[in-house]
Amino acid sequence: MSSIWIDERINKIFSHVRNKTKSALKDVYPDLTFTQDDSENAEAHFPTVYMFFDFAERGTTLDGGAINAVLMTVRTRISVTKTQGNNAAREVNAKVRDELINYGFIASGSPIPTVSGDVKVINSNYQRVIGFNDPI
Question: In Å, how far are 8, 27, 132, 134, 135 from 79, measured between CA atoms?
Answer without folding.
Answer: 26, 18, 33, 32, 31
